[in-house]
Specification:
Elements lengths: L6 H12 L22 H11 L7 E5 H4 L8 H7 L1 E7 L14 E8 L5 H9 L10 H10 L17
Parallel strand pairs: 1-2, 2-3
């Protein structure tokens, strides 16, 4: 995929990033080779719930911009009933608490100061601008090595970090 990354590449990048913190463990719950047709968040939450112990809480971390679109998600009412949301709002972002669906369990993280957006990150990658301050060096090197997100594949001598 010249402008993005397929599932296996995304999974490998999660593996590389997770090595930085052992509390994070990559999962294949959203592997497209499992089942047929599109995969929706509700499907992932059901799979997670099947493996969880009785009484475990499902927490879903997402940005306020994504949460603002919850009513557009496939089977969103079931999602709202199944998980608790940890919603992170960027510093200076308008408060969207008025748009919370009834019954949603929300934990707000206000003023999260993460100066990064996925759109801007992909644009930086496409233009071959530095991203090591936004990504683990191993992940940035992997992206460059495999020519993901519009990057030209770099010669091995220009790549830092492990495969």
């Amino acid at each position: 995929n010249p402008t993005g990354a397929g599932y296996e590449h995304r999974y490998r990048m999660v593996e590389l990033a997770s090595k930085q913190d052992t509390r994070f463990v990559p999962s294949r719950f959203e592997d497209p080779s499992v089942g047929s047709g599109p995969h929706y968040s509700i499907d992932t939450f059901r799979r997670v719930k099947e493996t969880a112990a009785a009484g475990d809480r499902l927490l879903f971390v997402l940005g306020a911009d994504a949460f603002a679109e919850i009513k557009q998600w496939y089977r969103w009412l079931e999602v709202v009933g199944m998980v608790e949301f940890i919603v992170a709002g960027r510093a200076g972002e308008t408060d969207r608490r008025a748009d919370v669906p009834e019954g949603a369990r929300i934990h707000w993280l206000a003023g999260v100061d993460v100066p990064i957006s996925s759109t801007e990150l992909r644009e930086r990658l496409k233009r071959r601008k530095p991203v090591d301050d936004w990504l683990a060096p191993e992940v940035a090197a992997y992206i460059r090595r495999h020519g993901l997100y519009g990057n030209a594949v770099l010669p091995r001598t220009e790549i830092r970090g492990p495969e």
